[in-house]
Protein: Tetratricopeptide repeat protein 5 OB fold domain-containing protein
Organism: Temnothorax longispinosus
Amino acid sequence: MSAIIDDKVVAGAKSSNTVKEDPIVALTERVKALYLFRDRYFETHSIDEAIKKSTDVEKEMKDTLSKFDECKGYEIDGSRAKYYYLKGKALNVVGHVIPQAEELLSKAVKLEPKFIEAWNELGEYYWKNDDIKQAKNCFVGALQHDRNKASLRNLSMVFRQEPTSSDEERIKNIQQGVEYAKEAVSLDTTDGYSWAVLGTAYLSSFFTVAQSPSMLRLCMSAYMQAEKDIIARSNPDLFYNKAIALKYQEEYNLALQSFESAMALDPLWETPRSKRDELLKYLKDIQNSINNNGYVKPKRLYQLIRGLDVKHLGPYKDGAYTYGGKSVKLDLIPLRELAIGLNTEKVVFGKVVCWIQDSDCVPFAFCLVDEQKTCIVVTVYNLAKGRGVTVGDSVGIPEPFVTHQKFSYMNNDFDYKSIRVETPIVLVVNGRKLGREQQASANLHTFKKTD
């Protein structure tokens, strides 16, 4: 982003030889260099130096501000707004709020109401200060003068975070956020930051509007585009949000690695570390529960298995069920015969022996044991709050989708199969199909750090 340059000679100078370069030109280049230093830090520093980044950027900011001090005493004719904007932008480069930035940027937009870059920078100041209403006003104001990618992608983020009074309003905001992000990308398909914003907009839509697998694929595709840009892939937020998406895809090994990337890029940011540790605990709990049949004592396990009765398959017990007006054949098979992927025209049946708590409460996970004492984990999405199954319930699952987790991480070996259930209404529990009241949308937790 560059400011418009005014070629007027600096007033107050003793002679034309006193100032060899227009101060605005020099300051514009200096602020541009400051942001390049921050955004491309890892081109000149190793990842091991990440812990020093914020300190180094602050030092560069102070060096840049000293250049502004050198211009004191000069009245920059016709360029005052640009001077205020550049200094405010320099102050805005760090992660924390510096009130003087608001003062300078506010002066800039008052002097030049159509100064789009200044409006965007002021909006980013308010966004950083969690003043969503003021941030929105700035970005909307900038768009009135020009459709630009910075305002559009920032509005996408604002609409995701804006408080709403109803679910309908929330959904409308999420959908609008996707449209803003898509437009931002269309204006510059090489901008990785816009791709990252679009990815998170898709992720929000996946959980808020409709849990379509195609939406999650769009999300991951956008993140992959973002990673092609060195500036975007230097941002820990990208890898944190990507890890969240990977977790919901049950790509756990990749999710753990993505949390690691976020931690490496910002060692002082605790959230990726805590989320990584929570996911690791969750996976260890699953593995240990499967290895020990839910920690159910042998006598109790025998009683549970004896209690399995085919009549508890309910509508699935006759070897078929109706879906979309068509009859679908179902063969009851043991858990050990499940193939990886979608098991069409098959149904499995077992007893719940335990459930596994996840910190986000999504998905609802439980272990199922069948007559052959095969134990498998079942993850259920879109389950309404307070709903679920309890130990001892008989559960039937038609056409189960199976994944195999097999990887090692931090001296932990994982090797287990799981059944993923996208909606609870396909389950039969104790002979009865679950009703629509069991279904609800998941809550998404993405993290805005320095957007």
Summary: The longest helix spans residues 270-291. Confidence is low (pLDDT under 50) at residues 1-19. The chain has two domains: 23-283, 285-438. The longest strand covers residues 346-356.
